[in-house]
Amino acid sequence: MVQLRIIEEYAHQNKIPIMQKEGIEFLTKYIKENNIKTILEIGSAIGYSAIKMALIDKKIKITTIERDQKRYEEAIKNINDFKLNEQIKIINADALDFSTTDKYDLIFIDAAKAQYIKFFEKYKHNLKDTGTIISDNLEFHGLVKNPELTTNRNTKQLVKKIQNYIDFLKQNKEFNTEFIKLGDGIGISKKNLQKN
Ligand code: SAH
Ligand code: MG
């Protein structure tokens, strides 16, 4: 039986950006407290966060999307080792190509940071009215707050994209977002159900 600790170590050694401890603790607590049962995850990597979420309760069902073939295969192996194949369905696709008509209690966005607005706009249609969209890595190792800490051009571009996404969430009339300074920074977006 593979242990979660082994997956965590493997991820760190291979620079696979799985959720940080504080972030995943927050996420699992949120799922418990809000009685979330159906989850769509964008960005499975090797299945770590999906496994953590599935282990909360046998009734939780997760669909998770990963575009990288190797990570997808590693995720399948890890999910099988935990005997969670009934609870976790993993799809090998680019989330911008995939589509579903299913509706979820939670949509967890944890994939390519440059595409967060696209993921949000595409998958908000798959959210139940009372559901939540959670986005990870909104602080991006502190670079969103202090962009001058990097001189790398690609990183600067990415930081700009995350800043755009934060502005998009702040200005969004359809959703209200709360920003949580835990792990690498998390956004909690809920539909604004109030009538104007
Ligand atoms: N949620 C995981 C970590 C995901 S890391 C955990 O905490 O355990 C981000 C992953 O998103 C990477 O494996 C990357 O290959 C994948 N990804 C990036 N863009 C994607 C896209 N457009 N569609 C599907 N997967 C994507
Ligand atoms: Mg992340």
Describe this structure as you would to a colleague.
The protein is an alpha/beta fold and 196 residues long. It has one domain (2-191): Rossmann fold (3-Layer(aba) Sandwich), CATH 3.40.50.150. It contains six helices and seven strands. The protein has helices at residues 4-13, 21-33, 48-54, 69-81, 116-123, 153-171, and strands spanning 38-42, 61-66, 88-92, 104-109, 127-136, 175-180, 186-191. The protein has a seven-stranded mixed beta sheet with strand order 3-2-1-4-5-7-6, with helices on both faces. Strand 6 (175-180) and strand 7 (186-191) form a beta hairpin. It starts with a helix and ends in a 5-residue tail after the last strand. The model has no long low-confidence stretch (mean pLDDT 96). S-adenosyl-L-homocysteine binds at residues 17-19, 43-45, 48-49, 65-68, 71, 94-96, 110-112, 115.
Index terms:
single chain; 196 residues; alpha/beta; Rossmann fold; 7-stranded mixed sheet; 7 strands; globular; binds S-adenosyl-L-homocysteine; binds magnesium ion
Task: Estimate the helix proportion, in percent.
Answer: 25-40%
CATH first level: which class?
Alpha Beta
Distinct ligand kinds: S-adenosyl-L-homocysteine, magnesium ion
CATH topology: Rossmann fold
The CATH architecture assignment turns out to be: 3-Layer(aba) Sandwich
Unreliable stretches (pLDDT < 50, length at least 5) are none
H/E order of the elements? HHEHEHEEHEHEE
Distance between the termini: 53 Å
Radius of gyration: 16 Å
Q: Order the strands across the largest sheet as they lie in space.
A: 3-2-1-4-5-7-6
> Number of domains in the coordinates?
1
User: What would you call the shape?
Assistant: globular
Q: Considering the protein shown, what is the CATH homologous superfamily?
A: Vaccinia Virus protein VP39
**Beta-strand share of residues:** 15-25%
